[in-house]
Amino acid sequence: MQFFRTQILFEGSAKSRTWRLPLALFSVWRWGRRIVCLGLILLILQTALFFGYEYFLQNALSQRESLQAKLSQLYLETDSLNQRMDSYFASEDLLYAKAGLQPLDHSVRALGTGGEILPEERFKRFISPSVALSADVQESSERLLNKIEKNQNAFKTLGNFMERQRENWRFIPSISPASGRYASAFGRRTHPVTGELGKMHYGIDISNVPWTPIYASADGVVQIAQKSSSFGNYVVLNHGNGIVTKYGHMQRYIVQPGQFVNRYQIIGYMGNTGRSVGPHLHYEVWRDGNAVNPLAYILPNEHAIE
């Protein structure tokens, strides 16, 4: 074994001390320094990892709490919207009833997500409240979307039906064709000109001053616009579906055969032409070739006769 000698001289003294040490001690010293340095580096890394882990852990926990709070709020909102949709369904049922339609099946509207939850999914929900809450929010959202879709389809169906009905209503008489006094009823009467007893009066008479405007009681096409010995200047409108209206004793008509007219459009003016004892409008409504009482085709809020 090789040795080295080292001598230590004390300052201000003649004394000295000599050691004889193995040469391998230098190698041990070098490796010892390296091990110590490596240990210090590992200690620093461990300390940094510990504090970093704590920081990220607290940050993750804070984010999870925030996420849970948002998910809880979202679940409450979707649940509230689901309840509001139920109230909309009640209004929808009322509209369907008023339109004479059969309301939709409530069980179809309330369809949920359904299906069996797999064991893995149940385990995830068990160990993580966020996962369970997220799944609840997703299911509630899907139910809400299903309800909204059913509601949209229902209102689309109702809207289409109402649009078709509106198109039909355009051609059904519903207003008084002129303002004035209700002078003579529908039915048998004594003719005011000829004095004939039991003469059938196929319409109603509305009296007012000459040149009072006369309106079309519904959309239709002018079938007749001419002068006759009995009705004087008169107009016949064809509304389709077997409905015809007639307007007699006009002072003047301002439409021509084949012309399309709209409800509330002026077709002439009240007069005293033909077999008449005073200025008035003779108004008839015919359905499928039979005269009907025109009062049945004048809505209460559209009564312009007294």
- Note the beta-strand portion: 25-35%
Average the pLDDT over all residues and give the rounded result. Answer: 79
Rounded Rg: 49 Å
| Distance N to C terminus | 141 Å
Give the proportion of residues in helices. Answer: 40-55%
What would you say this structure looks like, in words?
The protein is of the alpha+beta class and 306 residues long. The protein has two domains: 21-169, no CATH class; 181-302, Glucose Permease (Domain IIA). The chain contains four helices and 14 strands. The protein has helices at 24-98, 106-109, 119-127, 129-169; strands at residues 3-9, 16-22, 181-184, 187-189, 199-201, 203-207, 213-215, 220-228, 232-240, 243-253, 260-261, 266-270, 280-287, 290-292. Strands 3, 6, 7, 8, 9, 10, 11, 12, 13 and 14 form a ten-stranded antiparallel sheet that branches. Strands 1-2 form a two-stranded antiparallel ribbon. The protein has a two-stranded antiparallel sheet with strand order 4-5. A hairpin with a 2-residue loop joins β9 and β10. α3 crosses α4 (129-169). The chain is rod-shaped, with a radius of gyration of 49 Å. It starts with a strand and ends in a 14-residue tail after the last strand. The mean pLDDT is 79.
Brief overview:
With 306 residues, this protein is of the alpha+beta class. The protein is built from 4 helices and 14 strands.
Topology:
Elements: E1 3-9, E2 16-22, H1 24-98, H2 106-109, H3 119-127, H4 129-169, E3 181-184, E4 187-189, E5 199-201, E6 203-207, E7 213-215, E8 220-228, E9 232-240, E10 243-253, E11 260-261, E12 266-270, E13 280-287, E14 290-292
Antiparallel strand pairs: 1-2, 3-6, 4-5, 6-13, 7-12, 8-9, 8-11, 9-10, 10-12, 10-13, 13-14
